Amino acid sequence: MKIIMALALLFFMLLTKPPGLYAMDYIALDALVQEAQLNNPELQAASATVKAKQARIRAEGALDDPVVRVEMEELDSTRPLNIAPGNAMAARYTISQMFPFPGKRGLKERMAEKEALMAKASLKAKELEIIAMVKEAYFDYAYNGELTTLIGQIRGLLENMSSIAQARYAIGQVSLQDAIRINVEQAMLASELITLEAEKGVAMARLKSLLGRPQTAELGEPGPLSRERIAKDYKELMDAALRLNPEIKMQEAALDRGALATSLASRNYLPDLMAGAGPVQRDGRVHGFDVMFQINLPIWFDKYGGLSDEAGHGAASARSGLMATKNIKAYEVKAALLQVEAADKMRSLYETSLVPQLELSYESALKNYQTGRIDLLGLLDAQRGLKRGGIELLKALLDYRKRVVVLEKIIGGEASR
Q1: What phi, psi does 84 have (nearest 5°)?
Q2: What angle do CA 404, 408, 413 make, to 5 degrees?
Q3: What are φ and ψ of residue 266, in 5° steps?
Q4: Mean pLDDT of 392-400
Q5: Per CATH, is 2-411 categorized as 1.20.1600.10?
Q6: By three-state DSSP, how is residue 227 classified?
Q7: pLDDT band for position 24 (cuts 50, 70, 90)
Q8: Which residues neighbour 363 within 8 Å (Cβ) at sequence distance 6 or greater?
């Protein structure tokens, strides 16, 4: 009776383990995600790129440096290398500034803003990638932890089976071979635990790497795999992808930049203005001031026409790229959602049908073995089926969680629960 109660408790916890049960003792996934966002070197590099692009906005909107010019006339022929103002009959001092045609500087500044938005979208894409990797590593870590616990509990059932076999052997109902076979089964489980501990260590090492922690740093135990399910509405998920996906945002920014580049190219036909002013010095005294105006003549139409064509084709490419990206994301969302649904059905099959039936099968086999109706091989077969069912249920939970991670990476944020 004690064995049956222990078995029922084991699989009740396996199927319904509440998230708050381990909240005080285990590391939280959300905390690890936040740590990765702060400390992951790849994200730090991408963040620095965004800041560099944002700093460039100010430079693109600024005027060029002014130019200072000094002209000296009628230098003393006996001292031609002496260019001091006192060696010339006249000297002009001019400071000039180039003023691009109105609108050009603003367009360049706005183009730089779009490039910064593209860099920011690239940072978000990298952030989603790192978050997905952290979640997958955490789920592997949690899976190995739960599987280790499950194998340990199955090992406890085997110990109880061994006690029953030895008791029956003591009264001559079974041979010593039954107890030996159970001991062999226990030894095989011990070897599985060794492998699981190694796999758990690998998952832990990967998680530390993603968090930017040294491999010698401490990392707490993972919580159980979440039993939550997400909403599976394709339209809602696709709307979220169109709104949040960084690849789409990057293409939208590229399209806007292309339109601005086309507008800027059309202004190449318009002249820029240079204006200057300065004093005129004669015989060591200021005699007046000069004012200077200068414009460039954009007469090489083939050159500027080529630049306009280049900008136009770039904008068309960005427009097609945006459409292609939206089409790809529509497919990816649909494919990921189908995989989530399939994983959910497989999980439900184990939770509601296979595992409960395997539990009943084991309970029946245990009773029949105690009464001598079946031999040990029948009981061991039921026990192995029970173990396989528990492992497959955990694998189904792990697969479901990883499929959800892929879907959330595509839409660019967490799916609604």
Answers
A1: -70, 145
A2: 145
A3: -70, -20
A4: 95
A5: yes
A6: coil
A7: very low
A8: 4, 7
